């Protein structure tokens, strides 16, 4: 057995040989290493053989110390393999490593289906968390822990006694790795995850360890990567919810990003730059769209077709949106240029949102998602979503909804939107459904456009200052800053506007304060800009009002109009005939309304911005009214506009041919096809899975087992009530009621309605899914019976055979 000094000399000479020979040729270097190794110890033949492959260096790096696994002979082999990998890495193509990471996930997709291990389902047994639960196996728990403890103890003593390593942090890191890998083995992780362990060892040897300043750090990095690969994805989904991109293995491949990170410094060329930039840009933009992607349940621990489709939709949506933004870049640059040009010439007027408005105002489309990850040619295609309204007034807003798709068999074919329109109030949410009947969308992946048009109101105001012109001139002749002299800090006021899809900019004279005198006429300018803020367009301007302080007016002109009788009539108009004066609801302001000619000036629809400019008149007799009794008079201009806004949101749907699905002949027939079945048109479901009927029930199951109203809530005119809170309604009036938070996998059956015990007529409810397993029932145009008093609205749920499975379900309390 060679002594320590002999070992050290051998390794030193071996290092010198490697540094010299590896620069020539890797194969020749390996042969040289083997020859030199056998000169120092005859039993190194096997060690030299191990040097020839990458596996030798991998085992060395994770073997709890080279000598601990085979003495000086194998130790020399590990040393040679380590130096070989460090030197060869400079010449190893980075793209090959990236492709190997891609190959790893290709094997997951097509071969193994590996998706980690769920700690949630294994925790009671593995950690002993559920020791009080029935059936907890104490024997298996203690046996697992005993085996793991023995292995870790043996590993630690082997390292200390045979490898001579006494560094505590290194020993701890090696022990943690041994514990983790054996722990994965006990849980069956090697069944489908063996490739991941092998690749982890290779990446450790080639990338992680050579680029870490200490062995301890390299070991802990490997520990963290393996732990996240096998357990992390499931933990993210379980504890943070399924909508986190980082919890989806096919969207956030940890080993691909690890290789990309470690190879960045080894070989910077145009290809690695391109890959890095493309991955970063696509993922940054895709993360902003993550809410549009339907995620799969967190408890799924095998890669399913649904998860594969999620990954495809994620990157397709990200790429399409990224490309659309690139295409819009010239338009945005032109817009910026035009704004700057008009700003210089006085034609663009800015503003900013009111800081006091905490929540965004407007009409929003949320949770838009297809009813299934894929549809078949002979079944309807359904897209769900929610429409949410947030406004600052009690004024109702009328909303119309529509949908179309690029994949319709008939050009410009519109989908059936239910409901096609609605009236919403201050804070309200409406569920909707876009439906294409079977055969109306061609096979393939297509975009469904959900379009919303609604009326909205935006208000804005601008502060400005006026001053006696003689006093202002006297101060300026003495080099006194007028505004500073009177303690005014807001020297360049900016228009403030309420939040929503449209921004209102208001501009006036740049030099403030504006000087006024009875002998010095003044005509301040007033500019107004309407700017589109959302990804839509201002379709129409219904009303626009300008309010100026009393004592001021828009510039008056005399215009001639033709009457209905063909006569010419002279009228007073304002601002080039774009406005007319109307009564003001506030006595301290004069109000002017935009005319039809003024609306045409805005050149609708507005997709960027449009501006108009007027001059103001202040008569000599009104100067004192404007100035008031203060040295500087602070006044406000106001603009109020009511408009129609239209915007579109998109979602991708996939339609496949239907040769592989069985068509059922009845709603109560159980599907026996592993690929699923198609349902008759009179059933609740369009397709069903193996073992279920077209009503979504399993054999022997009734609707009462699946539909739960326990947590249901009632919404009426934007306010939410519990089932026991009385809702004031008028007799014989037509109302819209929404019952939300109904728990069920599927909804089917027919219904009968009551007020207390009296049967009443009611429209068929419309069911829409608000989330997985959660439904909303809407009663539109429900006529309230002429039954004064407080009554309970109830419903019978009747199955397909006419049996009442849930009797007198309490829906709401009405105070008529």
Could you give a short description of this structure?
The protein contains 19 helices and 34 strands. The chain is of the alpha+beta class and 816 residues long.
What's the topology here?
Layout: H1 4-21, H2 26-40, H3 45-51, H4 54-62, H5 71-88, H6 94-112, H7 119-126, H8 138-163, H9 168-186, H10 190-208, H11 215-240, H12 254-263, H13 270-288, H14 305-345, E1 351-353, E2 362-370, E3 375-376, E4 381-390, E5 397-405, E6 416-418, E7 421-424, E8 427-436, E9 444-468, H15 469-477, H16 482-485, E10 495-497, E11 502-507, E12 514-516, E13 525-532, E14 536-549, E15 553-554, E16 556-562, E17 568-574, E18 579-582, E19 589-594, H17 596-601, E20 609-617, H18 623-627, E21 632-656, E22 662-663, E23 677-678, E24 687-688, H19 703-706, E25 713-716, E26 719-721, E27 726-728, E28 734-743, E29 750-755, E30 758-760, E31 766-771, E32 774-783, E33 790-798, E34 804-815
Parallel strand pairs: 1-10, 3-21, 9-12, 22-23, 27-34
Antiparallel strand pairs: 2-4, 4-8, 5-7, 5-9, 6-8, 9-10, 9-21, 11-13, 13-20, 14-19, 14-21, 15-20, 16-17, 18-19, 23-24, 25-26, 25-28, 28-32, 29-30, 29-33, 31-32, 33-34
Helix pairs in contact: 1-2, 1-5, 2-3, 2-5, 3-5, 4-5, 4-10, 6-10, 6-12, 8-9, 9-11, 10-11, 10-12, 13-14
Describe the structure.
The protein has 816 residues and is α+β, with helices and mostly antiparallel strands. Among the domains are: 4-88, no CATH class; 346-655, no CATH class; 660-701, no CATH class; 706-815, Immunoglobulin-like, CATH 2.60.40. It is 35% helix and 30% strand. Strands 1, 3, 5, 7, 9, 10, 12, 14, 18, 19 and 21 form an eleven-stranded mixed β-sheet that branches. Strands 26-25-28-32-31 form a five-stranded antiparallel β-sheet, with no helix packed on it. The longest helix has 41 residues, at 305-345.
């Amino acid at each position: 057995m060679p002594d320590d000094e002999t070992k050290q000399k051998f390794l030193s000479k071996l290092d010198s040989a490697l540094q010299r020979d590896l620069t020539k040729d890797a194969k020749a270097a390996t042969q040289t290493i083997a020859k030199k190794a056998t000169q120092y110890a005859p039993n190194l033949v096997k060690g030299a053989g191990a040097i020839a492959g990458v596996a030798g260096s991998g085992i060395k790096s994770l073997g709890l110390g080279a000598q601990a696994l085979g003495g000086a002979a194998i130790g020399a082999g590990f040393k040679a393999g380590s130096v070989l990998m460090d030197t060869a890495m400079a010449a190893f193509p980075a793209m090959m490593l990236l492709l190997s990471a891609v190959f790893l996930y290709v094997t997951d997709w097509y071969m193994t289906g590996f998706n980690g291990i769920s700690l949630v389902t294994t925790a009671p047994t593995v950690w002993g968390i559920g020791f009080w639960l029935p059936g907890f196996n104490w024997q298996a728990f203690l046996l697992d822990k005993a085996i793991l403890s023995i292995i870790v103890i043996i590993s630690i003593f082997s390292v200390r006694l045979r490898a001579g390593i006494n560094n505590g942090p290194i020993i701890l890191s090696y022990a943690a790795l041994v514990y983790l890998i054996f722990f994965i083995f006990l849980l069956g992780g090697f069944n489908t995850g063996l490739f991941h362990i092998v690749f982890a060892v290779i990446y450790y040897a080639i990338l992680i360890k050579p680029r870490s300043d200490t062995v301890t750090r390299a070991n802990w990095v490997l520990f963290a990567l393996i732990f996240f690969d096998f357990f992390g994805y499931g933990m993210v989904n379980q504890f943070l919810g399924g909508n986190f991109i980082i919890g989806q293995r096919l969207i956030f491949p940890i080993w691909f990003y690890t290789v990309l990170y470690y190879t960045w410094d080894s070989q910077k060329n145009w290809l690695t730059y391109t890959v890095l930039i493309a991955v970063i840009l696509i993922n940054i933009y895709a993360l902003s769209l993550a809410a549009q992607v339907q995620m799969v349940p967190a408890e799924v621990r095998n890669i399913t077709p649904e998860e594969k489709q999620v990954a495809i939709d994620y990157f397709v949506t990200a790429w399409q949106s990224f490309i659309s933004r690139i295409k819009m870049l010239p338009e945005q640059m032109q817009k910026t240029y035009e704004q700057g040009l008009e700003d210089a010439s006085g034609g663009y007027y800015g503003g900013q949102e009111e800081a006091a408005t905490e929540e965004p105002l407007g009409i929003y489309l949320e949770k838009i998602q297809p009813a299934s990850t894929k549809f078949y040619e002979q079944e309807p295609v359904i897209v769900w979503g929610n429409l949410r309204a947030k406004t600052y007034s009690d004024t109702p807003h009328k909303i119309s909804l529509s949908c179309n798709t690029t994949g319709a068999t008939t050009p410009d074919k519109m989908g059936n939107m239910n409901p096609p329109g609605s009236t919403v109030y201050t804070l309200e949410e409406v569920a909707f459904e876009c439906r294409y009947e079977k055969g109306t969308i061609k096979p393939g992946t297509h975009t469904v456009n959900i379009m919303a048009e609604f009326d909205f109101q935006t208000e804005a105001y601008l502060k400005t200052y006026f001053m006696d012109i003689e006093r202002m001139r006297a101060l300026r002749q003495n080099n006194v800053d007028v505004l500073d002299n009177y303690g005014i800090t807001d020297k360049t006021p900016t228009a403030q506007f309420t939040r929503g899809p449209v921004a209102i900019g208001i501009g006036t004279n740049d030099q403030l304060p504006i000087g006024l005198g009875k002998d010095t006429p003044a005509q301040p300018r007033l500019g107004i800009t309407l700017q589109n803020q959302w990804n839509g367009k201002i379709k129409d301007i219904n009303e626009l009002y300008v309010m100026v302080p009393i004592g001021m007016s828009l510039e008056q002109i005399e215009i001639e109009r033709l009457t209905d009788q063909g006569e010419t009539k002279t009228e007073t108009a304002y601002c080039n005939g774009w406005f007319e004066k109307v009564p003001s609801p506030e006595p301290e302001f004069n109000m002017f309304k935009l005319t039809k000619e003024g609306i045409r000036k805005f050149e609708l629809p507005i997709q960027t911005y449009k501006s108009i400019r007027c001059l103001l008149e202040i008569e000599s007799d009104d100067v004192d009214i404007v100035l008031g009794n203060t040295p500087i008079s602070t006044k406000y201009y106001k603009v109020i506009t009511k408009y129609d806004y239209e915007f579109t949101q998109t979602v991708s749907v996939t339609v496949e041919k239907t040769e592989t699905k069985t068509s059922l002949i009845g709603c109560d027939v159980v599907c026996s096809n592993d690929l699923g079945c198609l349902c008759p048109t009179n059933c609740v479901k369009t397709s069903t899975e193996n073992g279920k009927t077209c009503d979504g029930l399993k054999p022997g199951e009734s609707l009462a087992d699946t539909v739960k109203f326990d947590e249901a809530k009632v919404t009426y005119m934007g306010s939410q009530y519990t089932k026991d809170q009385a809702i004031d309604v008028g007799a014989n009036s037509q109302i819209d009621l929404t019952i939300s938070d109904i728990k069920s996998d599927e909804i089917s059956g027919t219904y009968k309605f009551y007020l207390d015990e009296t049967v009443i007529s009611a429209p068929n409810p419309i069911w829409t899914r608000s989330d997985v397993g959660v439904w909303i029932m809407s009663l539109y145009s429900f006529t309230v019976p002429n039954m004064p008093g407080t009554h309970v609205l109830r419903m019978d749920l009747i199955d397909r055979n006419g049996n009442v499975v849930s009797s007198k379900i309490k829906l709401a309390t009405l105070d008529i």
